[in-house]
UniProtKB/TrEMBL annotation:
<feature type="active site" description="Schiff-base intermediate with DXP">
    <location>
        <position position="93"/>
    </location>
</feature>
<protein>
    <recommendedName>
        <fullName>Thiazole synthase</fullName>
        <ecNumber>2.8.1.10</ecNumber>
    </recommendedName>
</protein>
<keyword id="KW-0808">Transferase</keyword>
<dbReference type="GO" id="GO:0009229">
    <property type="term" value="P:thiamine diphosphate biosynthetic process"/>
</dbReference>
<feature type="binding site">
    <location>
        <begin position="181"/>
        <end position="182"/>
    </location>
    <ligand>
        <name>1-deoxy-D-xylulose 5-phosphate</name>
    </ligand>
</feature>
<keyword id="KW-0704">Schiff base</keyword>
<feature type="domain" description="Thiazole synthase ThiG">
    <location>
        <begin position="3"/>
        <end position="246"/>
    </location>
</feature>
<comment type="subunit">
    <text>Homotetramer. Forms heterodimers with either ThiH or ThiS.</text>
</comment>
<keyword id="KW-0963">Cytoplasm</keyword>
<dbReference type="GO" id="GO:0005737">
    <property type="term" value="C:cytoplasm"/>
</dbReference>
<feature type="binding site">
    <location>
        <begin position="203"/>
        <end position="204"/>
    </location>
    <ligand>
        <name>1-deoxy-D-xylulose 5-phosphate</name>
    </ligand>
</feature>
<keyword id="KW-0784">Thiamine biosynthesis</keyword>
<comment type="pathway">
    <text>Cofactor biosynthesis; thiamine diphosphate biosynthesis.</text>
</comment>
<dbReference type="InterPro" id="IPR013785">
    <property type="entry name" value="Aldolase_TIM"/>
</dbReference>
<dbReference type="Pfam" id="PF05690">
    <property type="entry name" value="ThiG"/>
</dbReference>
<comment type="function">
    <text>Catalyzes the rearrangement of 1-deoxy-D-xylulose 5-phosphate (DXP) to produce the thiazole phosphate moiety of thiamine. Sulfur is provided by the thiocarboxylate moiety of the carrier protein ThiS. In vitro, sulfur can be provided by H(2)S.</text>
</comment>
<dbReference type="GO" id="GO:1990107">
    <property type="term" value="F:thiazole synthase activity"/>
</dbReference>
Length: 260
């Protein structure tokens, strides 16, 4: 069970709702993933998405509206206010994009927008880079959760900088952290969970798979396996080989005599 944003959730896989071949496939994929936290774009909803809302409303999920496509503090705050009204939640996945090429979050505007949204009573889930100091500032600004990127949105590259992520995990051990974006394969999600992250959020890897429903199920298993491995505690990595089969008492091995 994961406690996040004041709610208890069973699944550590959070899923997006964009880019699916059809609304029915989206619904089937979300069900197959067993995700309980589902992110939705307010801007998409704003673009005549009444049908879309009716469809996703069939799901019993916690909605995590996002500010995808926002580049300024003003845009992000306005979008968050619309989301609160539309989805009746104070949760907001805050995206403030600073660079169009790799959709990298703008750390300065993200921080400013966070301060404003926290003041207005939002539970901010900030989509951020893996920079430790930025993450510390976001916590100072009132975030209770962090969402560092795995890799740029839609790239499917997996964890670009495991060292930076590991550092974040070690330095901020008690903060719920969700790896968001850039995950391409279930093994990437497993890796994030093995490292001790609390959850992963992804969209493209499922929506753009040849068989999104099957891929959603694969991600569910990958996340579960990674979490279980983390809880089980991995063996330490060694530089020097150590036999896993004891040879004591083996009758024919006589190293001293050089016997082969
Ligand atoms: C849907 C959403 O919120 C995305 O902005 C998110 O960051 C997922 O990224 P991927 O599509 O790379 O999984």
């Amino acid at each position: 069970m994961l406690k996040i944003g004041g709610k208890d959730v069973n699944s550590r896989l959070f899923l997006g709702t964009a880019l699916y071949p059809s609304p029915q496939i989206m619904l089937d994929a979300i069900r197959a993933s067993e995700a309980e936290v589902v992110t939705v774009s307010v801007r998409r909803e704003g673009q005549g998405g009444e049908n879309f809302w009716k469809q996703i409303n069939q799901l019993d999920c916690h909605w995590l509206p996002n500010t995808a496509g926002c580049h300024t503090v003003k845009e992000a705050v306005t979008t968050a206010e619309m989301a609160r009204e539309l989805f009746q939640t104070n949760w907001i996945k805050l995206e403030v994009i600073g660079d169009e090429y790799n959709l990298q979050p703008d750390p300065f505007r993200l921080l400013d927008a966070t301060r404003e949204l926290v003041k207005r009573g939002f539970e901010v889930f900030p989509y951020c880079t893996d920079d430790l100091v930025l993450c510390q500032r976001l916590l100072d600004a009132g975030c209770n959760i962090l969402m560092p990127w795995g890799a740029p949105i839609g790239t499917g590259r997996g964890l670009s900088d495991p060292y930076a992520l590991q550092t974040l995990r070690q330095r901020l051990p008690d903060i719920p952290m969700v790896i968001d974006a850039g995950i391409g394969l279930p093994s990437h999600a497993t890796q994030a969970m093995e490292m001790g992250f609390d959850a992963v959020l992804l969209n493209t890897a499922v929506a753009q798979a040849e068989d999104p429903v099957n891929m959603a199920a694969a991600f569910k298993e990958g996340v579960t396996a990674g979490r279980r491995a983390y809880e089980a505690g991995a063996m330490p990595v060694r530089d020097i080989a150590k036999p896993s089969t004891p040879v004591l008492g083996t009758p024919f091995w006589q190293q001293d005599k050089g016997d082969v």
